Amino acid sequence: MINTQKIDYKQAGVDIDAGNKVVQSISSLVAQTARLGAQPKLGSFGGLFDLKELGYHDPLLVSSTDGVGTKLKLATLLNKHNTVGQDLVAMCVNDIVAQGAEPLFFLDYFATSKLTPHQATEVISGIARGCKLCNCALIGGETAEMPGMYKDNEYDLAGFVVGIVERTHVLPKKDEMKAGDVIIGLSSSGPHSNGYSLIRKLIELHNIPLDQPAPFATQHKTLGDALLEPTYIYSSALLPLSKQQLLKGIAHITGGGLIENIPRILPVHLAAELDATSWKIPPVFTWLQQLANLDDHEMQRTFNMGIGMILIVDVALVDQVLTHLTTTEFKAQAIGKLTDSADKQGVIK
After folding, report:
1. CATH assignment of 174-340, given 3.90.550.10, 1.10.10.10, 3.90.650.10, 3.30.750.24?
2. What is the pLDDT of residues 134-148, one digit of tens each?
């Protein structure tokens, strides 16, 4: 039987006009992320970047890709979408900064069941804001409307960043690390973008309202706002240090927490010894630990516990590094040292 009824793409669940509205609404935001080497412009099939303009001598490109995870579920529940874009940029950019790389350009992938221009614009505005914070050009992306793939109002985010670093400045410098090197910790803004499956489970089990004041000290009016605090982006604070070769290593404290991320940058013969009393653990983590009834070890391998980045620094350079960090928005302090390890690479004592 021949179907005589017209069925267009919109009736199938994909609204091309809505996609065009999103492009129009974000064009000015994207243009604001222009930097040396890139003048972002939407509509092309690919984004261009001119490496010649940067003046590097012997560069390597460094790339990373990541998402925001189930923190997006909270954004959907609260109908607040203007912060998760910064989370996306941060999770990608902080990873390449850990290699000593300067972020150059970023691309995003936004996928949803039904495209709502206001929602998409809020998300992408956060991405643009994150890119501006790290002087990274937003040169392209994909907005995909896929009915049937996601529940109503839900969406997923992924990002991709490319950065650059001089070959002689690549981190970590494991061959230079030695016992006695100091571990400096930089503050986090909260859970960042890790552990949210557990956080959401706890909120559900204890029937905790997100629109009420948080049960811990915070600058935010509600628990939901506190939990949506975006991930810090550390590039502006750390790149001057890595370019001056004042650092031996950087670890981005993401999934796996302090316990699993610090060992990734250490040589076999060294371990990290942390003093848990050297920094104040933010109240949100104390609250989560009580709700979950977890021991310290399990908390430390799930959450960042208030430390978003750690630096490995020669003892002779500690004062210089800390002096520089006092000019940034991040709290920084020595939280431990490297010690000899005869049994296991990078074990945290």
Report:
1. 3.90.650.10
2. 999 999 888 889 988
Q: How far apart are CA 134 and CA 65, in angstroms?
A: 16
- Distance from C-alpha of 313 to C-alpha of 186, rounded to nearest angstrom: 13
CA distance linking residue 70 with residue 37, whole number of Å: 34
Q: Is 251 helix (H, G, I), strand (E, B) or coil?
A: strand
Sheet holding 182-187, edge to edge: 249-252, 307-313, 182-187, 332-340, 270-274
The architecture that CATH gives domain 16-169 is 2-Layer Sandwich (3.30)
Low-confidence ranges of the chain (pLDDT < 70): 1-4, 6-26, 41-43, 342-349
CB 229 within 8 A of CB 296: no
Q: Where do you find CATH 3.90.650.10 in the chain?
A: 174-340
- Pairwise CA distance, residues 40 & 281, whole Å: 40
Give CATH 3.30.1330.10 domain extents, the chain: 16-169
3-state secondary structure of 270: strand
The per-residue pLDDT for range 188-221, each reduced to its tens digit, is: 999 999 999 999 999 999 999 999 999 999 999 9
Mean of all residue pLDDT scores within the chain: 91
Nearest Cα neighbor of 108 from 78, 131, 133 is: 131
Residue type, 24: Q
